[in-house]
């Protein structure tokens, strides 16, 4: 897929001018018809399944509607929003989410980049190594969550068993307030380090070899070459990967649900998990909708950032 | 900077040969690097191996303290339990696997049918505010599922789609369409539009030119895209657990997660079910490894 210069596309104007004008007119008309016919079914589905539900949630967020109580919804205007934004509970969940997202994404980035860098310096067995490292990423979060729950079990878990045979003490990974969030970060890091590794590796192999050759002729040190050649060239791509992971980590629900169910106490309750509790255990649908809309706003900001960097990368 | 993962995972020894001078000087460093890589690889792979091992262990070895790494009794009972219930006949887990096949399969076909033509149109024609439309499409894929599921739940309740396979198929199609469009637009961009122009000069209509000349060239891309869509639907959990409840509709992820609901957990069964569930994903992912970067970034990054 080492694509040559994109030969075409995005310039239908040019394409049209290459043909005789007479059939061109009727063709452009049918092109327009084709465009509508080909794009609108997909857009209609998205409108029905993504936009409409979100608009409905937006409407509900201004009401006191409850999915179980039934009855009609009363407008409460911004009450739900002020309730959420001033709630100490929500602040705590936001902090937990922040620790989780920053902790997990930082660890993944450092580890993933390290692995990619080490693999890129190998000449043999690269393909096999890469393939093996990628396995965790392809597993369903459900499988990952279940399995780590088993391995981190305080009594018969294999991790504690190994710690024991090394003469170290037992750790209550998932059942103590202090360690549960760390366990969550570790499991997420285990699953998603390959993601950063994959993208960093693509960036690293794309660094032109002649730059290194020129540097080694100049007797530049290894560290100097890393700092002045490798890092600046890989950084834009790595940033995309980091932002992508941040959005995904912010949205994450499955792992929390399976690994800790938010506990012990509320120590691992992220915003995603809390909104689920408000909506499906508390059945405060109006409040949950406002909560959800606020989360969507954060995702939109992050996505805009992501797309902006993506655009910048593509233009270079 | 045109490099694909193809190159990244290629084992071509000719590339990236370290200069000999550094080789000798850096031998100790090189050994250290290999050691670090080996340790990291072991850490990454151990849970997977442990899962496979647990799935073939006798129950008393599963809970052995300290854990048994090598000298355990091998059994295939757990795998039998995944597919057959104790009284004979199919187990509810095997039903859920079938449901997963149906839901993931149909939603993938639908997403492909809707997404590929749209991707072609976005790639070939002038569309008003094209960039904005494409960004909007991708944004819908980034919405937190826990948030989207609240109004979807209410909507499905009105429409009678709660606890139906159709409901799951619809929502999975909706979250795979953005991915299919972004992924396929990249593949369409790689096929020169001149092929179609030449065909049209020969008297074909635009649609015929697409079907007879461009589409065959897109088939490998369509296959790769469909495989990713299949994996996403297969692995999906949040919509599945909130929108379905009965055994006859439930897909595999909530069914497997349901195994840990009781007071005692049969971890051997959980491991076996996880292995059966994950194996097809790994095989499929291996088949599309060339497009892995584009696939896991939802078609946004490709090189």
TrEMBL record, chain B:
GO terms for biological process, alphabetical: transmembrane transport
Membrane topology label: Multi-pass membrane protein
InterPro entries: BP-dep_ABC_trans_perm, MetI-like, MetI-like_sf
Domain ABC transmembrane type-1: start-end pairs: 97-288
Transmembrane segments: 31-52, 97-122, 134-154, 166-184, 213-234, 267-288
Pfam families referenced in this protein's UniProt entry, alphabetically: BPD_transp_1
Annotated CDD domains: TM_PBP2
Record keywords, A-Z: Cell membrane, Membrane, Transmembrane, Transmembrane helix, Transport
Chain residue ranges for the region called Disordered: 1-21
Keyword check for Cell membrane: yes
Compartments, as annotated in UniProt: Cell membrane
Record GO cellular component, one term: plasma membrane
Gene3D superfamilies xref list: MetI-like
Protein family according to the UniProt entry: Belongs to the binding-protein-dependent transport system permease family.
Protein name per Swiss-Prot or TrEMBL: ABC transporter permease
Organism annotation: Acrocarpospora corrugata
Taxonomic lineage from the root: Bacteria, Bacillati, Actinomycetota, Actinomycetes, Streptosporangiales
